[in-house]
Automatic annotation (TrEMBL):
Chemical reaction(s) catalysed: (S)-dihydroorotate + A = orotate + AH2; (S)-dihydroorotate + NAD(+) = orotate + NADH + H(+)
Protein name: Dihydroorotate dehydrogenase
Pfam families listed in its UniProt record: DHO_dh
Positions with a binding annotation for substrate: 44, 68-72, 125, 190-191
Entry's Gene Ontology molecular function annotations: dihydroorotate dehydrogenase (NAD+) activity
Entries under HAMAP family matching the protein: DHO_dh_type1
Keywords linked to the UniProt accession: Cytoplasm, Flavoprotein, FMN, Oxidoreductase, Pyrimidine biosynthesis
Compartment(s): Cytoplasm
Length: 300
């Protein structure tokens, strides 16, 4: 039985990885299980300099999900290279570094710093606000998305995954823009913009007013977007959005995702990603599927 998948020439032992921002760089979760059980670990977003993130409160629970406005708090590329890469290299899993920035120069600086580091792929978070263009996210303007993809690709030595924002009119327009810019793969979806109001305090539940909504409530939207995108582009898709178990993951795979990322579920169940990987294997045995590639995009 083959569970291996290949994305941009990088072979993963299974199609399960972690969603950026929900797993840190794996240190806490390594106390629960061997990270080598996963196809890849996707790190928290890394910027060229340390980011303090947004003011608190930054997280609020919603029905079947959560809102977060962490603001991509991170220690910066220097600490990441010195501390987190050596830690992850101890495990038999692929390393995907999520890169964030507030300008084209920010992204390119991090990508150049990572060029000679032992990491397998780069995931570019284009849901960051473009400070030079009035705050609209890179991932909400197809021309800006294509341009930032082109600039990152010029400097990257590893395959480039563009992480798409769902907060757009037509996800396929954005996917095609990333593909036209040279993206090797797509991650989707990032969080949906949401809001929660505390009726007792009569104020916003999180200080940023709005936050990114994730968790089971967003899964039907995410599956639909993955399916649409799989029909529109010819590069691999990493599907995510509300995956809590193997059944959820298999929906994404059948819709056209080559791999999947487990995110919010990690907060409720630290074993979630490992259990998803095991559950996919159990499904393949149950239905006598010899090769996971036979499931990718099987629903037309």
């Amino acid at each position: 039985m083959n569970t291996k998948v290949t994305i941009a020439g990088v072979e993963l032992k299974n199609p399960v990885m972690t969603a950026s921002g929900t797993f840190g760089s794996g240190a806490e979760f390594s106390e629960f299980y061997d990270l080598g059980a996963l196809g890849a670990v996707v790190t928290k977003g890394v910027a060229n300099v340390p980011w303090p993130g947004n003011p608190t409160p930054r997280i609020a629970e919603t029905r079947s999900g959560m809102l977060n406005a962490i603001g991509l708090q991170n220690p910066g590329i220097d600490v990441f290279v010195k501390r987190d890469i050596p830690f992850l290299k101890k495990y038999d899993t692929k390393i995907i570094v999520n890169v964030c920035g507030k300008s084209e120069e920010d992204y390119c600086e991090v990508v150049e710093r990572l060029a000679d580091e032992p990491v397998d792929m780069l995931e570019i978070n284009v849901s960051c606000p473009n400070v030079k263009e009035g705050g609209i996210a890179f991932g909400q303007d197809p021309k800006a998305l294509q341009h930032i993809t082109e600039q990152v690709k010029k400097r990257a030595k590893q395959p480039v995954i563009m992480k798409l924002s769902p907060n757009v009119t037509d996800i396929t327009v954005m996917a095609k823009a990333a593909e036209a810019g040279g993206a090797d793969a797509l991650s989707m979806i990032n969080t949906l913009t949401g809001m929660k109001i505390d009726i007792h305090r009569r104020t916003f539940a999180i200080a940023n007013k709005t936050g990114g909504m994730s968790g089971p409530a967003v899964k039907p939207v995410a599956v639909r977007m993955v399916y649409q995108t799989a029909q529109a582009v010819n590069i691999p898709i990493i599907g995510m959005g509300g995956i809590t178990n193997a059944d959820d993951a298999l929906e994404f795979i059948l819709a056209g995702a080559t791999a999947v990322s487990v995110g919010t579920a990690n907060f409720a169940n630290p074993y979630a990603a490992k259990e998803v990987a095991e559950g996919i294997e159990n499904y393949m045995r149950r239905y006598q599927v010899e090769d996971i590639r036979d499931l990718i995009g099987a629903v037309r």
